[in-house]
Design brief:
By secondary structure, this protein is an alpha/beta fold. It has helices at about 20-35, 50-55, 65-70, 70-85, 100-110, 120-130, 155-165, 180-190, 205-210, 225-230, and strands spanning about 1-5, 15, 95, 110-115, 175-180, 195-200, 215-220. It has two domains: about 1-15 and about 95-230, Rossmann fold, CATH 3.40.50; about 20-85, DNA polymerase, domain 1 (Orthogonal Bundle). The radius of gyration is 17 Å and the shape is globular.
Length: about 230
């Protein structure tokens, strides 16, 4: 068995408007903290939401503890604002090529099960999957960006939940992290999982992502047979 831990943004979907994340996040931070800090200027690709909030607001007196204290209301307001800004999601998010076909094939495959491993806070991750119609493919518990500021922590969190859910003693190397940034590769390495990088992110060229030495690299997910053959080698 192999457990596939999927990143969302740049791997499964893409905002049709570059910087779309900031459209619904900046108003919420301004509402709750009086400022969005440095968020407008941050390069957020590959970061967890907690890390983004801390780096954006840290110079404005907002600590990790302050964020934790207000995390429930922050999550609620962020998801509500995102739903308002994105509408039905059709024009705001788009599936990347081959994603649905790949997930459908993997869903039928006896070796693979899928979960989310994403920098998004959990309700935002679920909202995005709902808006693009992918929620049925992720039946295992995952790990999310409201659980740690450090993406390295997320694979272990997901793995512990999945082991309990399946009642199986799964080794780290039975998990495969699939993502589009160096942070996805790094968090897999830290946990001992395999790393598959995809070249569909906005911020890293194929050459740049390859320099971080993922176990495998796929330019995209359009060739379903090639995706499964690549995973079969891990």
């Amino acid at each position: 068995m192999r457990i596939l831990l999927w990143d969302i943004d740049g791997t499964l979907i893409r905002s049709t408007r570059p910087g779309g994340y900031k459209e619904y996040t900046i108003p919420v931070l301004e509402e709750l903290f009086g400022t969005a800090g440095q968020l407008a200027d941050l390069h957020v690709s590959g970061m967890t939401d907690m890390q983004i909030f801390i780096e954006a607001l840290g110079n404005h007196g907002v600590t990790h503890d302050h964020l934790r204290e207000r995390l429930a209301v922050l999550s609620e307001r962020l998801t509500a604002e995102a739903r308002k800004v994105t509408g039905n999601g059709v024009t705001f998010f788009e599936l990347l090529p081959g994603v649905r076909e790949t997930l459908e094939a993997l869903d039928r495959h006896p070796r693979y099960r899928s979960a989310l491993l994403t920098g998004n806070i959990e309700p935002m991750a679920q909202l995005k999957m709902e808006l693009v119609g992918l929620e049925q493919f992720f039946t295992l518990p995952g790990a999310f960006g409201d659980e740690s500021h450090n993406r390295r922590d997320l694979p272990a969190l997901a793995a512990d939940r999945i082991r309990k859910h399946l009642q199986l003693d799964l080794a780290p190397e039975q998990f495969i992290v699939i993502g589009d940034t160096p942070n996805d590769i790094d968090c897999a390495r830290h946990f001992g999982a395999r790393a598959v990088a995809v070249g569909t992110g906005r911020f890293y060229s194929n050459e740049e992502i390859r320099r971080h030495a993922p176990d495998k690299f796929l330019p995209d997910l359009t060739d379903v047979d090639a995706v499964i053959n690549t995973l079969d080698e891990l």
